[in-house]
Every structure is written in structure tokens, then in C-alpha cells.
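Could you show me some protein's one-letter sequence and the numbers that encode its backbone in two labelled lines?

___
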Amino acid sequence: MKAISSQGRLFWSMVEGPCIKSFRRLSKMQEIRFIVNEVPRRVIVDPQKSLLKVIREDLKLTGTKEGCSAGHCGTCAVLVDGEVVLSCRYPVAKTKDKEITTIEGIGTLKNPHPLQLAFAKAGAIQCGFCTPGMIIRSKSLLDKTLSPTKEEIKKALQPHICRCTGYQKIFEAVELAASYFRREMKSIKLKLEGKNTIGKTVTRIDALEKATGTTLYAADLAVGGCAHIKVLRSPHHHAKIIHIDTKEAEAIPGVLAVLTAKDVKGTNILKMAGDDQPILCSNKVRFIGDPVVAVAATSEEIASHALEKIEVAYEPLEPVMTLEDALKEGAVRVHDDRSNLFFEQPIIHGDVGKGFSEADIVLEKSYSTQTVEHGYLENDSGIAYIHENGQLVVMAAGQNIHAHRKTIAEALGLGLEKVRVIQTPTGGAFGGKLDVSVGGILGLAALKLKRPVRLVYTRSETFAATPKRHPFFMKVKVGAKKDGTLMALDFDVTADGGAYKSFSNSVIQRGVIHAQGPYRFPNAHVYGKAVYTNTAFKGAMRGFGVPQVAFAIESILDELASELKLDPLALRMKN
């Protein structure tokens, strides 16, 4: 059975609806005047364009960040007539004749605001992507009261997400600034030099740059003549690609290139930790969000519009959605050339059978954990260009630039010396940016066009197309004496690796190593395996499989303590 559909309409109406609507409103431009950071400004824009887009694209003030475009994360906060607004959801038409303050208007590197100094001194800054929005909101609070309670600070910052630092240091930073404004201290001084630092608090060297919004993340980079890329993704869990028709998209004025797997000169495989993930899918898609076609155009709006005009003929295949489906006899294969079971790792010591036979109590339980999104606030993004020496340069957020360089070079058929990867300041990652996300497509487009290119994922794309924490299904069996002495452990782990290997092998290896926790089991058999399913691929995330197995071993020890009528802590200390 074959299904023919315009997958741009199916998938991108959800992801890029506002951009397409913007494309259709280009004839409705208006002049809008306002004051930004005490400077009168004038723009001619679509009045429904978000204030965030105007600030970043038209006014080139990149300190205000785009994290979600849905008003949920707080990175886009600015002041309008002294009140906080989330600029990603605020039409620029509403700012006519109003006064806008962005992070650049709060303070500068040469003349930082006390709040910016306080955030730096208190250690409230890590990746820094959420910091400008936090400082905007904190200033609004301190403009109203110089003696906020801890609860008032927490309530004020509630609309803001921070995935790195933890919130306590942020609360302390606001309290520190408030103390300064109450004249309880003469100044807020930062210790930035590297002398006599042992035993002393030292400020991060990049903290003040992040607090003032001057740090340039990948999406903040501006290169003249930059083309914009959008990606058409699979709406199917599992399907064959029968035909791709790009003629109508290619004919749209402003479209510079429409790229498919046929344009890739190398292996087309991103060999980071696996050997199975394409830059662009050639004959098959394996999860909803798999990249199929990339469009480069003179604007994001044109590129998004072109996606609607691409026709892809798919033959839907039976999807493998669960671990049971993946491992059953005669299971559909996610990858035609290999089994769904792609990695196994046992650890054995002692005599498990003997250990259980000598136990007074044997307890057997099953546990499962769910898929987890990293939730870093900076969406995957980057730029690429051809240097005058002929070298492909990719600038993107990441965590392993040397491996990224090798991966991109091989996938695109280039010698290693022909590729340079520059890691930009990274707005959160937690393992999620160990994989190559935008780099392959950026490199492909730059090589094709011989001009700078830019790709910035939407939040929907980041959710759909980047790796997640592995869900584990675990069967755990423990044996113990009546006094709580642990005798034996049998621990079986099955991890859902999703559509591609990514770092599944390492996650399983680390998981089985830590499955016993910090406890002495004289006899243990731990067996871990990873399988393919037609779901978003799973990769690295903080802990590398340890949080999942820790949940299981700690849970069963609590249940064992209950059965033995022992104190849970005493049981643990005994072993």
C-alpha cells in the first residue's frame, strides 16, 4: 500500500504555522515607532510579528533569547512601560509609542547593573541562556519593593525555567542585589583573577558577559548573505520513501536549494557512537521527525513556505512501538540489515543460584522508567560557511567538537583537514548535544550553495528530533537473610534505544555497572540489552543509565526492608 501526501502540510502546519502565516502577510507591513533602551526607534514590519523577532532580527539586539516561542520558558522577557512581557507572544503592534527595555538597556560590561553583578557573584549563572530573562523579571520586582521576601522572589520568578544552576543561587542573587539597594553594603565586587583562589569563591570568567546579554550563542550569530534552512520531517513512525517531488518548491522565488540524500557525497551516516543515522533519509524513515528534505532560502518564511510545496510519496510500514514488539519472534525490523536487539552487556560474579538457595527471603519485582526530554533552553542551532581557504566551517552548540568534526567530515565525504568545527557557547545540553544535530545539514547546504547558511530548530523540532533519556524496563530479583544480609541479585535491563543507536551502548554499559548500587552482593548476575523501536532515538543524558537502575535497586531494597520489618537505612548500612 502506498500513501502520497504533502508531508510539509501534515508536520509543519504544527511546527511552523506562525512562519507560514507571516509569509502570507508580507503585504501588510506597517511603520511602528517606539523607544528601545531610551533610544527612539522605527521599524516597518508585519504588525503581528512578535516583539521578540523584531528585537532580535530588526533591531539586532540578541541578548533577549528565544527558548520556546510559546510563553512558557521566560527567556524572552523584556519590559514594556516598566512591566514584564513575554516578547515571543507579544505582537509588535502593541508597542506603538511605548518604552521597551531589553537586557542591553539594564547594564553593560563597562557599566553593569547591580543585579547583573549580583547574579555573577552569587553563582546564579551557568549556561546563561535563561539569565537575561531572569534579570529582567528581577528588576521589575525590585522596582516595586527593595525588601522582597523569599516567597515573593520565588513567585516573581515562577514563569522562568532554569535547567542548569538550580534556583537557590538565583534567589540569593536577587536578595544580594536587594541588600545593595537598601544600602546594607557599599558595592558588589567580583573576584575574577586567578590568584589565591583556593578555598575562596571565584566568579565565572564569562558570568558578566552572560548577565549583560553580550554572549553570542549560535542563533545570535550574524553572517552577511546568510541563507536560512528549514527541514521537512517524517510524519510517519515507519515508512519507505517512494518518491520526492521538489519541483514546485524549487520554483518559489527566494528558494536557493532543495536538498535530499542524493546531494550527500559521503556516507550520509552520522557516526558519533552509532553507525546507522543519516543526515537525510534516503529510502526509509524510522520515527516521526526523521529528516527527509532540507530547503535553503533567502528567509525563514520562504523556506518554511517551500516545505508546504514538497510532495513525498511514502509506503507506510508496520511500526515497532514497544519493547515487546521489538523482541517478539518474527518482529518487524526497524533496520532491514540487522536485528532489533543491537547491544547486550552481562556482568556476572559469584554463584547466583547458590546465593538464592541460601537466602531466607527472595523478592522479585519489575520497574520501568519513562522517556525524558533534556529540556535545555537553547534550541539546536548553528551556521556554516566555506572559508576562503576552502575549509568547511561549522559553528554550532555542542559537547564533543572533535568527534563532531570527524563525523561531519566522513558523512559529507570530506577529508578531516577540510572541516573545522567551532563550538559556540552552549545554552544547556546535559548530554543532548553530544550527538550531531544541525551540523550535517548545515555542512551539506554550505557545500552546495558556497555561501553562509543558518539553521535554528524550533522548540517543536528540538522535542521531536533530538535524543532523549532511555526508558528502561527492569526485572529485579534479590535474596537476603532474615537479618538483612544481601545474598544474591538478578537484574535484567531492557532499554528502548529508539530509531538509532546513538549512545545506547555506553548507557547500557554504565547502567549494568551501577545496577548493584553501592551495596555488597556476593552473587550477582546483571544483564543489559538495547533494542530499536520506531520512536525518537535515545542518547546521552546525565547519569548515562544510572538514574534508571538506581530507581530500581533502591525501590526493591525499600520493599525488602518492609518485608523483613527492618529500618530501610539500617538495611543499607549493613550492606
The CA atoms of residues 156 and 449 lie 47 Å apart. Residues 9-105 form a domain with the Ubiquitin-like (UB roll) fold (CATH 3.10.20.30).
